[in-house]
What does this fold into?
Amino acid sequence: MKLIFCLLLSFSVFSQEKFRVSGTVKDAKTLETIPGASVYLEGTTIGTQADSLGRFTLKNIAQGRYQLVSSFVGYKHALQFIDINKQPKQLVILLEEDNQTLAEVRVIAGLDKGWEKGLRKFEHAFLGDSYSKKEVRILNKEVLNFETDDDRFLATALAPLVIENLSLGYRITYTLDRLEQTNDLTSFRGLGRYEFLTASDAKQQKRWDANRKEAYLGSLAHFLKALVENRLEAEGYNAYLLKPGAMQMGRKGYFYDISTNRHFPFQATELIKPFNQTGLLLFDTQNAMELVYNQRRVTRPMYTDAPYPYTILIPKGRVLLSPNGNLMDPFSLEMRGDMGRIGMAELLPLDYNP
It folds into this structure.
């Protein structure tokens, strides 16, 4: 059993029309501007740095609700929700000083065997089960700290992690809140900013485009978008709602056999409903859901009649989605199976459009 929480995302898109947001970043105490401050929409490729006067502009933003993040060395991250619409946005972002400084970052990589063991465990839990170590690297591993207590493994970072992903063509700056792993659970959360890498030639760009699409197909983002658009079968998914107590029954029978007491079919239109005139959608079920992505085969399937990637989704309270299927709160869905084994090495930015 494995559960992965990834980005503190708040991202909902309502149209394809593009807008911009501008503003100034200032010190909260002195009100002096902060040139070079980083400003970005969390989990996306949309970001910039403030100019010499502390001013910034983010362009080509689809209408919707986002989490805006601003940061600078020696200051705490500033987070705020913003609604992007036809009205121009002019913001003033105030950053508060952080008592933790770079001097507190201890460089211990390679000096402690216990730390090296913790690093290997962290990379497996954070980056995922299957990725190329030659193509996906954490460039500043030395900022990581690890703690082990009985069956619990905890990882924190004293500075944002910088991840170079040469498989998908992104550089990710990830402010890790914490990663926690037990015998049957892995969870992590943080703030991520994606930046495009520059391809050396057209061949490399073509490879990145193909890898991004491969990573998207069969992912949670792909499944939820298909669910919202009532296109599960057309997009290659077979899914059933599990009956209460079915997860305690173990694996019995066949995946596609609905005559058992395990699961029952559903219509996507029965589960996806408007939520309180917010523009968001409610994934309206407390039943767990099991699904397969039938466009990709696996060598060791969960069920012999469904030799495909298999996942169980378990609602944890209210599950809200944007109109294009983005999960508003990553903690609202527990993932077990194939989707639960996907790590940062295979995650795409929220504004990825296949």
Q: What stands out?
A: The chain has three domains: 12-99, 104-193, 217-346. Residues 250 and 297 are 22 Å apart (CA to CA).
